[in-house]
Amino acid sequence: MMNTTEVGAAPKAPPVKVEERLFQNRYLVDAGRPHIKIKPHAEPSKALMALTHLCPAGCYSLNDKGQVEAVVDGCVECGTCRVLTAKTGEVEWNYPRGGFGVLFKFG
Amino acid sequence: MIEEKFDAIVVGAGPSGNAAAYTMAKEGLKVLQLERGEYPGSKNVQGAILYADALEKIIPDFREDAPLERHVIEQRLWTMDDTSYVGMHYRSDDFNEERPNRYTIIRAQFDKWFSGKVREAGVVLLCETTVTELLRDTQGRVIGVRTDREGGTAFADVVILGEGVNGLVGQRSGLRPELKPETVALAVKEMHFLPREVIESRFNLKGNEGAVIEAMGTITDGMTGTGFIYTNQESISIGIGCIVSDFAESGRTPYGLLEAFKRHPSVRPLLEGSECKEYAAHLIPEGGYNAMPELFGDGWIVVGDAGQFVNAVHREGSNLAMTTGRVAGETVVWLKRRREVASKANLAEYQRRLEATFVMKDLKKYRRIPDFLHRNKQFFGVYPKLLSAAAQTWFRVDGVDKRAKEKQIFQSFREGRTLPGLIGDALKLARSWR
User: Fold this and answer.
1) If you measure CA to CA, which chain A residue comes closest to B48?
2) Which domain of life does this protein belong to (chain B) (predicted)?
């Protein structure tokens, strides 16, 4: 029999570590000058929370105080976090200084 | 930064910025181009497919030395469920022609080559230079840019913004609104290396022939999005992208989604034994015509992704970028020849010229599609599953008679989507496609 009842329920992939992927990439890190900063907050908005899974470089994580933190050394400069939090203004996003940041060999 | 005044400043050295800069310099204009990356291409990400027509109109003999990977002779469209795909493949020896129509490329290499042509044409290119804002005169006319270099201002009659999807300069100068999570897709991509003979045997290719796969279905886990697999000479580009707001709601990670796509039983054998050498992510503006910002103003023009020039249905972007860049460049040259200023009224010529090209015609034709696909997720989940189940019922020989099988298939569609749902979807699709 055809199975049409489970529509919408796809199996989840096993947890994947993004670090293993980023390690292939080349970066020129602008030490001490992160190009993305999170504004101080007591409780993250839904959008900011979403970045803990949505950021393709896994830059965002939740600390033990329930706040979202960012370590942007592995950032691939896609801009997703800026777009998603544009309304709440919780993320201050700039391009890295000229020459710094990710360097795609293939793109 | 640079004392002399330029005829034009181009922000960005991607396909749109390069097309604009090249077109103007070829006609003798003094052009300054600013790129934030270490080299052109170092910040750029694409699948990537190059459409020859758009580049031929700029550099007719590009095939002589451009770094092209494979010319595409086979296009596969896959509708996938968790264990299967239903495919529509088109392969033709006609694509083995003297001047092939589409090529796979590797953007960092291609952009470097294009930039070489741009500099040969006489453009002054400054890399590692991020433009931070537009400079205006007292009337609000754009007269130049400020950069992050020491004393970093530069002046020109017109500024062409080819700054890409994350066009911060234009956004922060109020030329266009911020992108919306509902109309922009996040795509992640990996570069998998394999010996060329292995790629050729797995994809049934010889020489520089190439095959490309575009896929949709349960691979995006109910989100609006697609996956792709492109063959390069010694590598396979594989990626998947979904609308940002869908990702935000789903709780899925982009790399988890890509991993699941790679593990699909139809995909895994294609990548077997490969070595991944890069992981990239990029936004794709998918809002189409209705999300298009103002394209020109006093002293400025926007080209490429910054202007939302992407045809999401046909996966076309770089050709729209090159065409808008070329047309912007031609408009500036035309004004210069007529000794006219780059005022908003005069630059309206840019849009008039674009309206006559496939760029505006296609984006207008598909203006309802982005919203349609975003609101009708059954096309990414329910239908691919129904289609696959129907194909399996049809092809499996199990003693059930054919009339009963037909009935079973019809019944599954009615149960999966209801009759009014099916009719409604057909009508909505037809109306959006028109």
Assistant:
1) A107
2) Bacteria
